[in-house]
Structure to design on (299 residues):
């Protein structure tokens, strides 16, 4: 069973678009997303292009700010502050990674928490930990949970979820979200002993480590649901490049009950959740009930 992230994302985007139509028609508010890209990293350019295009398709206005690789920290911070103060901008996304001379943490801390549609600001991270209702939740972890529910149903209660990876962007917030879903949560990482045996206990296995095809059938309990967050480019100029996940898809399919493909799994959900967060942010900033944006419409 292959979990179709593209189809799930398309369904979520229909709901987001409907919320945008209400916001623009009834409330005269057009949700707007500012996307900031510093430098010329090819992967980041592709991600930003996709985010901007899909925002447009959902009826969200997007404003793209492309800055050269030698942009100073001060210039970037000044742009972020300008966007913070601009009442017609509801969401701000600074594409990561930033060039080495810029302090990412300082940039994230400067984004107004209520416009931080990535959910990376300390107030949103802390809000997620505390279960605050208005915290903006990081997009990839949110998309992962939606995909798990798509496969397993609305309740994940009591299931053993193993998260491989402990990044601030995916692993840590994902573990917190799964705890909110009443899963039993284990976080595994590069220093975990006998990581394969731990993963074999998982009813749902999430892998977000950035190592091409690390996980194979020996890591998977028969019938488990596998959510692969990795996007790795392998191959060579001569052979041609291809994208693979952190899971060896072919090997894993012999054991898993259901698995997300790469591409076409988590990736589309990340963008769909970003658009949803932008609309949620626009609602919150204008005192409009967040019920306008459905919780999950994946099934
Ligand atoms: N780089 C890789 N993933 C992300 C993401 O979700 N948000 C931002 N801002 N940068 C990223």
């Amino acid at each position: 069973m292959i979990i179709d992230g593209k189809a799930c994302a398309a369904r979520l985007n229909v709901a987001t678009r409907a919320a945008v139509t209400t916001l623009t028609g009834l409330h005269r508010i057009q949700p707007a997303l500012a996307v900031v890209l510093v430098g010329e990293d090819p992967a980041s350019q592709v991600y930003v292009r996709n985010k901007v295009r899909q925002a447009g398709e959902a009826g969200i206005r997007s404003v793209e700010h492309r800055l050269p690789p030698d942009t100073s920290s001060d210039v970037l911070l000044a742009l972020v502050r300008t966007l913070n103060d601009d009442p017609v901008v509801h969401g701000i996304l600074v594409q990561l990674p930033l060039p080495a001379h810029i302090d990412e943490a300082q940039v994230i801390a400067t984004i107004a928490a209520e416009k931080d549609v990535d959910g990376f600001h300390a107030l949103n991270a802390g809000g997620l930990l505390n279960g605050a209702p208005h915290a903006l939740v990081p997009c990839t972890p949110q998309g992962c949970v939606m995909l798990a529910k798509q496969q397993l149903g609305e309740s994940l209660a009591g299931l053993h979820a193993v998260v491989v990876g402990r990044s601030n962007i995916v692993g840590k917030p994902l573990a917190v979200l799964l705890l909110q879903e009443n899963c039993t949560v284990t976080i595994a990482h590069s220093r975990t002993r006998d990581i394969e045996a731990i993963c074999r206990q998982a009813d749902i296995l999430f892998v977000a480590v950035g190592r091409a095809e690390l996980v194979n059938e020996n890591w998977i309990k028969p019938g488990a649901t596998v959510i692969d967050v990795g996007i790795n480019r392998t191959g060579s100029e001569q052979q041609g490049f291809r994208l693979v996940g952190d899971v060896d898809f072919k090997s894993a399919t012999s054991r898993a009950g259901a698995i997300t493909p790469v591409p076409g799994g988590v990736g589309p959900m990340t963008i769909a959740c970003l658009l949803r967060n932008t609309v949620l942010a626009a609602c919150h900033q204008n005192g409009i009930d967040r019920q306008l944006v459905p919780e999950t419409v994946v099934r």
Q: What stands out?
A: The chain has two domains: 27-112, 139-267.
